[in-house]
């Protein structure tokens, strides 16, 4: 409940990260350190709550310039991850989206819905033309999001990311505004927007059966 | 529609002010200059859209430090005013709320509802204990808000504000968290929260008759 | 003796706080921690001389913008407290004065005289119109200053300050320039200005007798 | 001649851009505005020498943080263009190179040699692992550099750049350190490093004949 | 009259420069432009009051770091010039003093007394060990101050200053703390400290006769 | 080898100091602490590599403003000292040069050649008119450089430097552009520029014999 909250279905609340969220975010990173450390660089470098505060301050500073936006995700009232655009280039009409999710909030459509909400903001409110998502070649969980949301695979950048396993190639996925405008009318996307989280589980279960 | 929007009823949308709102806000100030100039100091000093941009940058900078929050109000899809807290003191658990509204959005409960939403944020999300509203002694439209929302009159500070008519005394109204917790259960407040804007007009009309 | 010193009588010297005063101020805070901690928030948070240096740097930064002024008080050649204006609003012609004094310099008229000197600066040099002093309802020592100097009680702000005893109401006292101009001609104020500190003790003794 | 100069052959001098170069760079941009405006965004926004000064200040600020480097190219004693890395990411061991050249310095191997020198700095001095060059799909002159220097084509990002003709797709070329180490021993690269500029013309003429 | 004023005799008041002095200082520079322009570089570059404001902001910023101090001189209630230390090096115990005076305040001992007061501050309050004054070889009015105050001539730096007549050599004068401690007991210095400004004229007249 | 390297003879390479040089510089300071501590103040205050990083950041910040330049000296592939100008005043056409050298690189002409290269940059690229070198009266090794390079002794500033032995007087040496233009044509200077480092040893040996 609040002036900066965005509610999706009955269980997901998105909020612009703010300094008073630091403790909650920090605890979530600590709890998920093993889960996150392969692909999320700060999972290992976040040692104290002041590290998280410093990140939030930087995030809001960049937000105040219109260059980044970082959204916290609360699932069933607990902080569960983040989705954000860490470079918004209004001159080129371009942004790159990144995200991470706590282990126990996975498999429920939380991130797909959160990314859809962020895309609404970027295409409608910020009038962008192109959104990019980058995933390590071995990170199939991350790749599932752009695949599910109709992004096109546009390239493979060699040795472009540093994982805990060493340098790895990166897939670049892109979605243009005109593609988003078509896709968002489809039943499939409407589903993510309107249905509640419980129904998601059914869908996922069904999709695994088939 | 968007990740930073907060919708009240069918006609009011609140958004954290952002740099890409500058043109819309500036045009509203220009159109309402005569209406605003007596009590809103920047109504006369805002000469170009860059003045508004500078205000927004400052507002978000302070927001990033947790010290201020400035919310734009859209009524029937057009920008119609602002509500904000221009000093949030977490050490003392205190904030002061200010607001201004375009002339053609007045008399519809827009500001009462916007202030209620901001108070939710300040008491719940920011855990404050006391909210203050200050109004020039001659500004009865502004005083109507704290009166309607059960604030107590706590003092009269002499020659504390500069209006276009010269120095004027200021009433200080205060509301404590414990008072807000009681008030928000009342039918009267529930009304503002749940009903749509059309019903407001009926209420106002009825209240004027009685 | 010095270009930034302001001498009152034979025993009081006022100086704009500067970075090389840090050690002296810090030692005074340490020695008076118990005396100050109820009403002076930084008495408990000042743990090292670098905390005091940081305060001084901030104080001078705000002074350089014309927004604050912080004056150190030396009594009988030892640092004994501070008097300052921690918000100077030239647009509104307004400032709020605050002060604290070491225990062994109390009861000698030191603070009354220091506040008078600061008021001269604010009304004459800075051309302000209104000065405000705020005191916790239980802090009678602090209230004695505005009462003695003809301020008017203008309001009681509920739960506005955090003392070591918890939240407390605050009295707001105000003095307008026109009132100051009348008062400063009175014998009573002249006395504070011209006489030396020893005579103060006699006056206080006499005033307690009557 | 100078402590920050890097000489290639007899005719090319590279220098870290500095504030006293502003006038010379500005005049070159003005003279080449038509030549540059399709692909170089600042060719149109650089209106006064202060715009160039602002760019240089920003460039050196980023250089001081180790995040960018911008090198001016002098050909036959006149300023003729720039080569730089506008994001150096030491955590990922990655940099992206960009460049532009005045019309009358084209076709002489100036940029190929300048890029080679910058690559030496990035791979050897800064110990990077991957260098990227991005070119608009229609910009064949720009693509000639990574092709000539053995970069691999890694992707095509759709609508990723804004040219004076509108949005355009972008080719991403990448070169890894291990590839650079092999390539730099080849006769072909040695040629660029050791021979003087006149010999370049012969080589180019011969290569066009074959 | 005020908390930051330092009064010498009946006619001289010294104040730390502050932002609200800008207009007064600017008018004095304008009026004395011809008188100052040969040796005071900003006499020609100060075109608008905002130039003076910018200087004051810089001066107070450096003061807040303990690295500079700039004092305004009021003579017979009108702003008449400045005296300051524009590099205070506490590690080396060293400062350099500079000054300029309006034409109609010259020949009255105003600057000699002002410099003496600043030296008190630098040697006593700031605990420095060495003070330096530099004067263009042709500027005899400026040289009169260090000569009168027992400074030693320590060197002649060739082409070290830019006057409106071109490059000129500079005399360096130095005074050590131990020399200042002896000198300040002499009758001559006592005279500057204690007597009023009218007496100065007599002394000067007498000294010219002999 | 690199875009920011300047090579002298076969054994000396000069580079603008950059943040990735910190470790190498720090180790050299540690190793030469005893050798340096008498005259180089930071030899004792540099305790950790972060101290060196902070110096480099400051150095590059000042360089980006055109106010300082700090050059690292590599001798036989190892970092061996620094030469720099720590105040470049373009308004006056003036700079002051300072330097320090590791013990095992002394006596080989390394510093004389490095200073000559820096002077080329300052007189030619930066168009300065006067260069100054200051040396403690007891520091004959340091004085050898300006003597060898035809600087004039212009003054002796008393107690101007703090050595590990206490306060000490300082010699000021100056060289004007017109003097530099004559000197650089002489055989003696040509020698430093063109010959390799081995020849230097012969010259020095010969000069000691005579």
Keywords:
homohexamer, 210 residues, alpha+beta, Aminopeptidase, globular
Short précis:
By secondary structure, the first copy, chain A, is of the alpha+beta class.
Note down, in words, how this protein is organized.
6 copies of one chain form a homohexamer. Chain A is an alpha+beta fold and 210 residues long. Chain A has a single domain, classed as Aminopeptidase, CATH 3.40.630. In chain A, 41% of the residues lie in helices and 31% in strands. Chain A is built from 9 helices and 8 strands. Chain A has helices spanning 22-31, 33-36, 42-45, 49-64, 110-125, 140-148, 177-183, 187-194, 197-209, and strands at 5-8, 12-16, 69-75, 78-89, 94-101, 130-136, 152-163, 166-176. In chain A, strands 1-2-3-4-5-6-8-7 form an 8-stranded mixed β-sheet, with helices on both faces. In chain A, helix 1 (22-31) packs across helix 4 (49-64). Chain A is globular and about 45 Å long. The termini of chain A are far apart. Residues 195-203 of chain A have low confidence and may be disordered. The interface between A and D is medium-sized, with 22 and 22 residues.
């Amino acid at each position: 409940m609040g002036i900066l909250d965005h509610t999706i279905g009955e269980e997901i609340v998105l909020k612009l990260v703010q300094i008073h969220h630091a403790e909650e975010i920090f605890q979530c990173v600590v709890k998920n350190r093993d889960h996150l450390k392969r692909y999320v660089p700060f999972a290992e470098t976040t040692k104290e709550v002041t590290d998280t505060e410093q990140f939030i301050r930087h995030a809001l500073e960049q937000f105040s310039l219109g260059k980044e936006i970082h959204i916290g995700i609360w699932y069933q009232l607990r902080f569960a991850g983040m989705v954000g655009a860490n470079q918004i280039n209004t001159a080129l009409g371009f942004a790159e989206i990144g995200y991470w999710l706590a282990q126990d909030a996975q498999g429920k459509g939380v991130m797909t819905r959160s990314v859809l909400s962020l895309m609404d903001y970027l295409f409608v409110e910020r009038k962008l033309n192109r959104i990019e998502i980058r995933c390590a070649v071995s990170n199939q969980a991350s790749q599932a999001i752009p695949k599910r949301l109709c992004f096109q695979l546009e390239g493979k950048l060699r040795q472009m990311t540093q994982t805990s396993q060493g340098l790895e190639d990166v897939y670049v996925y892109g979605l243009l505004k005109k593609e988003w405008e078509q896709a968002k009318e489809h039943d499939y996307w409407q589903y993510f927007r309107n249905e509640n989280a419980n129904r998601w589980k059914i869908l996922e279960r069904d999709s695994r059966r088939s």
